[in-house]
Amino acid sequence: MTTQPHPPDPGDRPARLAVGVVGAGRVGPALAASLRLAGHRPVAVSGVSDASRRRAAELLPDVPLVTPAEVLARSELVLLTVPDDVLPGLVQGLAETGAVRPGQLVVHTSGRYGVGVLGPALRAGALPLALHPAMTFTGTAVDVQRLAGCSFGVTAPEQLRLAAEALVVEMGGEPEWIEERDRPLYHAALALGSNHLITLVAQSMELLGAAGVGAPDRMLGPLLGAALDNALRSGDAALTGPVSRGDAGTVAAHVEQLRRHAPQILPGYLAMARATADRALAKGLLKPELAEDLLGVLGQDGTTDRTGGSGTDGTTGDDGEDTR
């Protein structure tokens, strides 16, 4: 009786791997530098822009800059660290040109995709892994330090799961298994919490500066640090502020001031305030009898004070500007 061939056992691979990076953006050089600390050998990197080349020179000194095909030719472990929209075409092109070798570990770091996007490489005999670090990157050496304790969204074929998790641990990270079908939802959650947070903080600093605060960062630092800690510990129970209290007059004053001084920020304020009110109501933190006036202030485009004007000058704000 013949037996079906088994995929290569990751445990049979050399303990230390030759590592290549395709795409010297903010992520790839940092991951390769972290793998170097674990004893692996970065051997090649590709990058097009001057910024990419500078990052590679800083984080991977003495590692040659070559073409993507040459990176694969030199590497046992390939990190594909390119933008999400570029990844499918890159994988297809590398596979079609014969750059992918059987038994080669091919890893991408996209949060959006699982291993399905690596299908062309798999058909060429590669071992596909999706390892997404849940971290914001600066493109500097500090990123290597931040990987310590960083969670990675891991997706891989079952027979490669241990290999994927081992690589994450070697980079100092914590593996978190994400099913293929859940990758887009997982990535949306991270973008909501991280990318949008940066926008909110930048807007808050902008408004504080307009209000005359000399060091908005120093004012916000302790407040935001405490708010983040409370939110991570307690979730919705950590909600504070005028929306969760149902203080419609104060919120109306906010809307009036934003409409006058920062109309570009008003739509985001209204959207977040509505979301906060909905969550506070659902958790019993916002009293229903106070919610009506509050939601009136937040209704439509926020240009009309529906509460009767506590904290405003009583104008309707009907200036013809659509701030939705």
Which key terms come to mind for this protein?
seven-stranded mixed beta sheet; elongated; disordered N terminus; alpha/beta; DUF2520 domain-containing protein; single chain; 324 residues; 6-PGluconate_DH-like_C_sf; 13 helices; OxRdtase/DH_put_Rossmann_dom
Oligomer category: single chain
The residue fraction in helices comes out at: 40-55%
How would a crystallographer describe the biggest sheet? Answer: 7 strands, mixed
Give the neighbour order of strands across the main sheet: 2-1-3-4-5-6-7
Distance between the termini: 70 Å
Which strand-content bin applies to the residues? 5-15%
Topology as a string of helices (H) and strands (E)? EHEHHEHEHEHEHEHHHHHH
What is the overall number of helices? 13
Coarse shape? elongated
Q: What do the pLDDT scores average to? A: 89
Rg, rounded, reads 25 Å
Classify the secondary structure makeup into a structural class.
Answer: alpha/beta
Ranges where pLDDT stays below 50 over 5 or more residues in a row are: 1-14, 302-324
| Total beta-strand segments | 7
